[in-house]
Amino acid sequence: MAQQAIPLPAARLGRAAGATGGGATVSGVVLVLPDGDPVSARRPSPLAYAAALPLARRLARDGRAEGLVAHAVHYRGQGWNGGDARLVTDAEWAADEVVRRYGDVPVCLAGHGMGGRAALRAAGHPAVNSVLALAPWIPEDDVAADPEPVKQLVGRRVMIVHGTNDARSNPELSYRLAERAKKANRDTCRFEVHSDGHTMRQHRPEVHALAVDFVFGALFSRPYARPVTDAFAAPPPLGLRMPLAAGFGKSLRP
């Protein structure tokens, strides 16, 4: 008897964090896209989803007064799977669901690893005004049939953050993508986290502080911290190889 494939679950938004109490006004939404695999038929990884929660909770906590809501996204499956680009479809569905739930509010896609690639790809959704790609997984130039597209980033604020010791997602490939993106969209910058790996755990407080600064500036027009302002203004390569200062998190505290 032939075995039947186990059906994958539908994509869905995780529990909302942030301005969700009675009478709360939602002014902006962050969709946090977990990591995934280049090819996989497996169900979505609960570990990857759990790894996305700290950033979602940090953004929601700091942005509660601004009316920020954050959702981590449950994918249908774990794999990108070539031309299917399943994680992109799930990210676009999630943006549609935000519009259905909250109306016309700006959306930031914040993804890690393969989720970072999905965030960059899904940036063309009309509700999306910004993309935060953490250690995005980018295919090798000689493997991909076509280079990663960048035209969908026009009109969006884009920040890429990558550890220089990442052994899973090649930081040089995210740099090359940022170079092409900067030509199409000047509002693109990239920070390098020296000596850190794929999860950027060693400098997590600084990475999360950078994420907060970027998201609040993009969604709520808050003034950016000086390093972020300089990164957007600087031409390549400086604006794409901007080092993340060790004291960045402290510089944001009163």
Question: What do you see in this structure?
Answer:
With 254 residues, this protein is α/β, with parallel strands linked by helices. Helices cover 33% and strands 18% of the residues. The chain contains seven helices and nine strands, in the order βββαβαβαββαβααβα. β5 (107-112), α3 (114-121) and β6 (128-134) form a beta-alpha-beta unit. α1 crosses α5. The chain is globular.
Tell the overall outline: globular
The N- and C-terminal alpha carbons lie at a distance of: 67 Å
Helix segment count? 7
Number of strands: 9
Whole-number average pLDDT?
91
Low-confidence spans = none
Largest sheet features = 9 strands, mixed
Instruction: Please write the string of helix (H) and strand (E) elements.
Output: EEEHEHEHEEHEHHEH
Radius of gyration, CA atoms, in whole angstroms: 17 Å
Secondary-structure class: alpha/beta
Approximately how much beta-strand content do the residues carry?
A: 15-25%
- Amount of helix: 25-40%
Defining traits:
alpha/beta, about 20% strand, 9-stranded mixed beta sheet, about 250 residues, about 35% helix, 7 helices, single chain, globular
Topology at a glance:
Blueprint: E1 12-13, E2 17-18, E3 28-33, H1 46-62, E4 68-74, H2 86-102, E5 107-112, H3 114-121, E6 128-134, E7 157-163, H4 171-184, E8 188-193, H5 204-220, H6 226-233, E9 242-243, H7 248-251
Outline of the structure:
By secondary structure, the protein is an alpha/beta fold. The protein has helices spanning 46-62, 86-102, 114-121, 171-184, 204-220, 226-233, 248-251; strands spanning 12-13, 17-18, 28-33, 68-74, 107-112, 128-134, 157-163, 188-193, 242-243. Strands 1, 2, 3, 4, 5, 6, 7, 8 and 9 form a nine-stranded mixed beta sheet that branches.
